[in-house]
């Protein structure tokens, strides 16, 4: 059983390969969307243009489905194009170009979670370098992080459009490590999305899952090496691993 307040996982799930013994990482890849930055702030933008806020969930579900579908078909597509089509579909093709742009522009104005800056500060003070990892373009992700002042804590940004491979494909994490010039075996991946942590562990990284608001780890993923009830406690659990 994963420990609730920043702890180590208790062992492999039935039917999965036993993970290697985790070690304190020398570098950390941090997932951006819904781990560091809150995409639920987009709800307000749907309301701004006269649409119900629940279309936010439909929009993101369509975008992730289509992005992964294209990737599985062997034709990875720029995430911005996927987002544009998903937004039109989720809103019933009823919005003007200006209204669609108003919603999409929200991606560069997303607020950070309250625990994001403290967690990145913990890594910086521990001299463990961190890189942001996100779906989409590196420029858009960097702009979003700049708007919150968080990019100053990061060594760089690695984006799926630049990699040409979409997480949770294990190759995406290997390429991300190569782009950051770090070794997957000494690198951790931190996310609030269980399926993304699962993919990282399959690529040989240390997996760290953020379980906010009493969430539990999905039963279908490899048990994460560490979990925490906030980004801070998750990072602290990584740093508490043996060297």
Automatic annotation (TrEMBL):
<dbReference type="InterPro" id="IPR036412">
    <property type="entry name" value="HAD-like_sf"/>
</dbReference>
<dbReference type="GO" id="GO:0016787">
    <property type="term" value="F:hydrolase activity"/>
</dbReference>
<feature type="compositionally biased region" description="Gly residues">
    <location>
        <begin position="1"/>
        <end position="13"/>
    </location>
</feature>
<protein>
    <recommendedName>
        <fullName>2-haloacid dehalogenase</fullName>
    </recommendedName>
</protein>
<feature type="region of interest" description="Disordered">
    <location>
        <begin position="1"/>
        <end position="22"/>
    </location>
</feature>
<keyword id="KW-0378">Hydrolase</keyword>
<dbReference type="InterPro" id="IPR023214">
    <property type="entry name" value="HAD_sf"/>
</dbReference>
<dbReference type="InterPro" id="IPR051540">
    <property type="entry name" value="S-2-haloacid_dehalogenase"/>
</dbReference>
<dbReference type="Pfam" id="PF00702">
    <property type="entry name" value="Hydrolase"/>
</dbReference>
<dbReference type="InterPro" id="IPR023198">
    <property type="entry name" value="PGP-like_dom2"/>
</dbReference>
